[in-house]
């Protein structure tokens, strides 16, 4: 039996609407829309943060995660995106590709995320991008930077917001080429795909712009090796003007510390990846000269930008330490996504991807940052400078920094097509 609810003026609500010519069905439909509309508008935007929080990438991801949370907090304080709050579901991939793929799938299928991000390891990134492609959910990387994800493994729901391996190696070559007193270079790298790709790209790019430079046969370091003595002596025996060393982590720490005891930095120069967290960890043990660092986003080189200065101050106030490159990149990557969503007016995958490849973004690293549609690569710069002490910090920083623009390092569309064809 249907009950008609009366209002305080007498007569049922349904009766009064019937007299006015409005059907009960219309009234019911309006009520349903009225209830469903606001609830739907308040649905949060869900981001799956599948990050390598433990394992080899753990130390890098710690600062990145802090920056990501800070960015989400700031966005939500400002009303979220499109009037919707941002909800983050965090997962630890343990720096394992199988775990990354599993967590990515769970986040997409069971948590209905609108975006996937957080990855550090290149191997995990390749596993996660395959899931993103299959399930058509936008996925971006702000840390992991293998070129494979832009070239032979590229898929239309992916983009990355930092320089990839090819760009980084080319940037190092650009810097070396500017130093006309350097005539002989010895490449030294880890003996796996990243090391070999870096050396090949660096050598080819340097030869193209400085054909007079002698590039010696590469020396490859066994992955996981802690005793660097044989590599140090082998390099010094060749009397190079500089050593191109795309090393990182404990391998780089061991090389620098052991190299000092051999007088390595009095005899030659090491050009290597020197992110802020590495410099912070070395402290006073860093050689006062002989190291040239290339980096993806050193905060000290960005302080002239008001946005970057505000981020550094907010991060330090919250965590009592300056942000690493990984933290800067992660915050900037999130804010780029936020701008794309605003431009799209939607979080639907195809709408977002169209905006990603059409907007110009002004963030922590400068203005006019864009992403190319054919490879999902942002025109990210790198910074190169001499590593030296600074009285303002308890660790060395990059001094006399050169910003190398992506216009000098990004492979062209024709080159990308050729690389894709070669990878088949």
The count of domains is 2
What is the CATH top level name of the largest domain? Answer: Alpha Beta
Q: Low-confidence segments, ≥5 residues, pLDDT <50?
A: 1-40
Cα Rg: 26 Å
- Helix run count: 15
CATH superfamily of the largest domain: Response regulator
Q: Major sheet, described briefly?
A: 8 strands, mixed
Report the structural category: alpha/beta
Average pLDDT rating: 91
CATH topology of the largest domain: Rossmann fold
Provide the β-strand percentage band: 15-25%
Helical content stands at 40-55%
Number of strands: 15
SSE order, as H and E? HHEHEHEHEEHEHEEHEHHEHEHHHEEEEH
N- and C-termini, Cα separation: 70 Å
What CATH architecture label of the largest domain applies?
A: 3-Layer(aba) Sandwich
- Shape field: globular
Report on the architecture of this protein.
The protein is α/β, with parallel strands linked by helices and 424 residues long. The protein folds into two domains: 45-163 and 303-380, Response regulator (Rossmann fold, 3-Layer(aba) Sandwich); 166-295 and 382-408, 3-Layer(aba) Sandwich (Rossmann fold). Helices cover 45% and strands 17% of the residues. It is built from 15 helices and 15 strands. The protein has helices at residues 13-19, 24-41, 58-77, 97-111, 122-135, 165-178, 193-209, 229-236, 249-261, 264-267, 276-282, 306-319, 325-344, 349-356, 413-423, and strands at 45-51, 86-92, 115-117, 139-141, 158-160, 184-190, 214-215, 219-221, 242-245, 269-273, 291-295, 361-363, 366-369, 382-388, 397-404. Strands 6, 7, 8, 9, 10, 11, 14 and 15 form an eight-stranded mixed beta sheet that branches. Strands 2-1-3 form a three-stranded parallel beta sheet, sandwiched between helices. The protein has a two-stranded parallel ribbon with strand order 4-5. The radius of gyration is 26 Å and the shape is globular. The chain starts with 12 loop residues before the first helix and ends with a helix. The model is unreliable at 1-40 (pLDDT under 50).
